[in-house]
């Protein structure tokens, strides 16, 4: 397995669009935060101590059960260029935090990119599993299995009353963050989204943008995750999020049906105009591209736009980001050059999908 594959190939398994309710739920993610008992947390650790953590994690990876789980590769952040790290972040394989604060940081990636284990990020370990569609239970099973393997070799910081100890107090307890990335254009178009998001926050969940905390919700993409990690079991947290996600799915489907029955002509005009722009534009900014791609994705879901696979929309969601555009170009690009290449890439990818 070559590291270059992770950089040059835009397609990850979570983008294949074949999971349950994948027309609305783009991906499901489960992340576990863990720290070693006898080492300072990363923000207080010396380079030597962080190096020891890396060595112990590498040793744990030699376990036969770990090798049978997947074909993994450890990639150290200090061996990458800023552009290469940005590409990994755009593919959701590392966090923005590991991108910017990568002192002795590393990521362990499975070949299919469904499993991503960040080392020396905010915590010593961040075990992440990312699946297509609504597959939170499946993601949790894999994350739990990987956690068990590490626990055979690493003594995690744990308190009988508080649970797993983490750098951020909001992760103390189970250390679990479960999230679903949802495409909710009909709720936005029918102006119901603010009401829905307000209700979500009242049941212990939080809403963020495409890249998590601090990121903006663009392209009608919303990341919904648990806010409470203490006082509930991992299974309870997962089931609560699934229950809320199903309610949002039902409301998004109802909003789509309303638009098709009551505003079909206006809806078709909007979606087809966006498709026309994407297949003909010579320059397009990132935010407009996200909005137009959202329209086309909805058109595919409603069978208004045909012969374009859903997976292509997921690919373009990543491929049109600044890092990927520059990686493909092999050089740093000005904003104007990125806009031109973004438009060209979208035109070519949509054309090839139709052939």
UniProtKB/TrEMBL annotation:
EC numbers on record: 2.7.14.1
GO molecular function, one term: creatine kinase activity
The reaction(s) this protein catalyses: L-arginyl-[protein] + ATP = N(omega)-phospho-L-arginyl-[protein] + ADP + H(+)
Activity regulation: Appears to be allosterically activated by the binding of pArg-containing polypeptides to the pArg-binding pocket localized in the C-terminal domain of McsB.
Classification via CDD domains: bacterial_phosphagen_kinase
Phosphagen kinase C-terminal domain boundaries: 24-255
Binding site for ATP: 27-31, 92, 126, 177-181, 208-213
Cellular component aspect of the GO annotation: extracellular space
Source organism superkingdom: Bacteria
Keywords associated with the record: Allosteric enzyme, ATP-binding, Kinase, Nucleotide-binding, Transferase
Enzyme type, top EC level: transferase
Residue ranges annotated as motif RDXXRA motif of the pArg binding pocket involved in allosteric regulation: 338-343
Any one GO biological process: phosphocreatine biosynthetic process
Keyword ATP-binding: yes
Family classification: Belongs to the ATP:guanido phosphotransferase family.
HAMAP family linked: Prot_Arg_kinase
Annotated function: Catalyzes the specific phosphorylation of arginine residues in proteins.
Name of the featured protein: Protein-arginine kinase
Organism of derivation: Aneurinibacillus thermoaerophilus
Gene: mcsB
């Amino acid at each position: 397995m070559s590291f270059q594959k992770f950089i040059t190939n835009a397609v990850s398994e979570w983008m294949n669009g074949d999971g349950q309710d994948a027309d609305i739920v783009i991906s499901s993610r489960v992340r576990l935060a863990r720290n070693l008992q006898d080492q300072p947390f990363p923000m207080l650790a010396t380079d030597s101590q962080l190096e020891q953590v890396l060595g112990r994690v590498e040793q744990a990876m030699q376990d036969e059960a770990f090798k049978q789980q997947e074909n993994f590769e450890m990639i150290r952040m200090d061996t990458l260029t800023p552009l290469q790290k940005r590409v990994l972040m755009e593919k959701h394989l590392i966090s923005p935090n590991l991108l910017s604060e990568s002192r002795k940081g590393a990521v362990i990636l499975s070949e299919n990119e469904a499993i991503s284990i960040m080392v020396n990020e905010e915590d010593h370990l961040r075990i992440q599993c990312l699946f297509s569609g609504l597959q939170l239970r499946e993601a949790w099973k894999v994350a739990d299995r990987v956690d068990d393997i590490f626990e055979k070799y690493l003594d995690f910081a744990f308190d009988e009353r508080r649970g797993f100890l983490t750098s951020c107090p909001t992760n103390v307890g189970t250390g679990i963050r479960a999230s679903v990335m949802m495409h909710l254009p009909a709720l936005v178009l029918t102006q119901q989204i603010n009401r829905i998001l307000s209700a979500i926050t009242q049941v212990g969940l939080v809403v963020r943008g495409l890249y998590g905390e601090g990121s903006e919700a663009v392209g009608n993409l919303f990341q919904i995750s648990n806010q409470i990690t203490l006082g509930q079991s991992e299974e309870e947290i997962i089931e609560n999020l699934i229950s809320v996600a199903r309610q949002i799915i039902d409301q998004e489907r109802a909003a789509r049906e309303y638009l098709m029955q009551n505003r079909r002509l206006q809806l078709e005009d909007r979606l087809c105009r966006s498709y026309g722009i994407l297949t003909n534009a010579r320059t397009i900014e990132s935010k407009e591209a996200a909005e137009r791609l959202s329209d086309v994705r909805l058109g595919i879901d409603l069978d208004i736009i045909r012969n374009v696979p859903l997976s292509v929309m997921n690919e373009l969601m990543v491929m049109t980001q600044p890092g990927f555009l520059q990686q493909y170009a092999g050089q740093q690009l000005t904003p104007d050059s990125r806009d031109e290449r973004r438009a060209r890439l979208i035109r070519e990818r949509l054309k090839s999908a139709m052939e």
